[in-house]
Each structure stands twice: as structure tokens, then as C-alpha cells.
Amino acid sequence: MQVTVADMAPQTKRAGSNKEARSPAKKAKAEKVVDPLAPILLALAECEKTAASADTLQAALPHCLAAAKEDRHGFQTKVIDHALSALSTLQDDARADLAEAEAAAENFRSKSAEAQADFDSKQLVANARKEEVESKAGEVKKYQDEMNAVTGEVKAEIEKKDAFLASKATLGEEQEAFQKVLDDLWQPLKAYSFTPQQWRKRDKVCSELIEKMAPLSLEESLLDALRATLKLKVEQRSAFAQRAVACIEEAFTKHQAFLADRVTGAAAEEETLGAAVNAAEEKLRVAKEKLEVQDKEDIDLQNTWVDLENTALAAKMSAESFDAEAKDALEEVATCKAAVDAAIAHSEAFAALCDPPAPQPAAVAEAEAENTAAAAEAEATPMVTEAVAVAA
Q1: Other Cβ atoms closer than 10 A to 84
Q2: 322 Cβ contact partners less than 8 Å away, ≥ 6 residues apart
Q3: How much is the pTM?
């Protein structure tokens, strides 16, 4: 008995050791097992056809499926058929949602393409009008430059006329002033209207006359002869002196004629200058009218261009909106496809649970081996207990 106990003691430890080694693994394996019916029950709970009876199905289906197909009674079969029908309905609904989502995606894609084409077309028209605006801007600048140049011409002609009118005002004054020189200075000296006692006054008047005669640009020798002649009485003047007086009077007559011609010609010159101003102003008027026409055309083109740009922008925003909706619709299609795949997977998984395949020989042998091992462990447990008790 002592030998038997001694021999069994190590066996007891190995048996206990093996049991303790296997138990955590089996426990972990059991924890990893997922109930295949759980996602199917969740899907049935979301189905309108079975939503009201979801709790009943959740309670009944595990029991219905636990029985072999040939052993199920009518209620169990009815419950399973009801679940199969609901899963089929889920597939149909998912496919209908997918078809609807695909149709919506195609509709938005088509509208997006149409809107994009519409935008491209409108933008081309807007771009063409923009080129016209830029071209017209060049024309407007050309006419603006032309008008500025003509404005300068008008200003120059007006200044010339104003300068002439200012000089014309002095012509009469010069004529009057020269006549006053003749009357007040020349005539008294020529007639020797001074008394011998007034010789200082005579000489002063003579000097003043010579000074006033400067614009005539007479020869200095003639002026010297004139100074000597004007100091003599009329009857004392020699032929040479008389000739000097005659030359001076001839110069006076020419200067008077020159002043008279200037006054007479001033009217014609004023008319010519006035005509030049009028011509320049008419040219400016025409240039302004042309510029106004170009400005109006430019404004009209710019307004039309802005309208076209706004229309193109609206078309662009519409295209972007349809494009965004098309993207959202494609995402919905992907979601619906996933729903269809999930519905099919649930139906296939439930069908497998309803009619599981027969166990294969290898699987049966493995199950029998596990059962045998379990039985051996169960038989070994009392023997270990007994051996421990004897050893004690």
C-alpha cells in the first residue's frame, strides 16, 4: 500500500497540473465565442415587419434553432419562417434603398454635369465679352487722348485771340498817343511857336519829341539836323533845313499809315483768329461726341459683362451644389450597398443556423476524443482525492 501510494502521488500532481493548465485556455476560448444569432436578432429588431415581436423572437429563436430540423414542431417552424421572411424583406428593402440611392446619385451626377456645361458655356460668353470690354477701353483711351489734344488746340487758339484783343486795345491808344505827339510837340516846333525867352521850353519840347520818335528808328544824322532846324525860325531855315523837316514829316506820315493799317487790319485778323477758335471748338465738340458714344458703348459692354459674370457665377454655384449633392448621394449608395451586403450575410448566416450541415467524421472523432478525455479527468479526480487522503 505504501508503494502504491508513493507511485500514485506524482500522478496526482500531474493530473492536477494538467487540469489547472487546460482550464484557463478553455475559459479564454469560451470567452472568445460570439453568439452568431446576436447580429441577426439585432437586424430583426430593426425590421418593421418584426420590430413589434423582437422580444419574442429573441426569446424563442434560440430554442427553435436548438432543436433538429426534423424534430421541430409547427410553432417553431412558423417562428423560423417568420424570421426568414423578415430577413428576406430586409434584403428587399435594402435593395430598394440601394436602387433609389443609385438613381438619386445618377440624377445628381447628370444635373452636376449639365450645370458644369452650362457654367462653362456662360463663362466662355463672359470671357468673350470681357475681351470686348478691354478692346473698347483701348478705343475710349484713344478718343480721350484725341479730345485732350483738341482741348489743347482750343486753349492755344483762345490764348492767341485773347493776346491779339489785348494788343488791339492798345492800337487805338498808340494812334491817339502819336497824334498827340504831332499836335502837342511837332506842330509847335515846326511852326516855331516859341518866343526867344522860351528857348528852354523849346529845347525841352524838342528833346521830348526826339524821345517819342524812337520807335520810328530814324537815322541819327537826320535827328541831329532836326535838332538844329527846330532852333531856327521858319524864315531862317535853309533849303537843307526844309528838307530835314520834309523827311521827318514823311516819316510821321508813314508811321501814321502803319498805325492806321494795323487798326484797319485788326478786324480781319480778329475775324481770322475767331474763325480759328471756332474751328478748334467745333473739332472739340466732334471729339467729345465721339468720346461720349465710345463711353456709352463701353459702359453698356461693362454692364453686360458684369451681368454675364454674375450669371456664370450663379451657374458655377449651381454646379458646385449639384456636385456636392452627387458626392453625398454616392456616399449614400456606398452605405446602401453595405446594408444590402449585411442583409444578405444575415440571411445566409440564419439559413446556416436553421439547417446546420452534418458533422464530418474528423469532427466527430475530435468530439469523441474530447469526451473521452473529459471522462478520464472525471474518473481521475476521485482517485487523486483518495491517494491524497492515504498519503495524509
Answers
A1: 14
A2: 108, 111, 112, 115
A3: 0.49
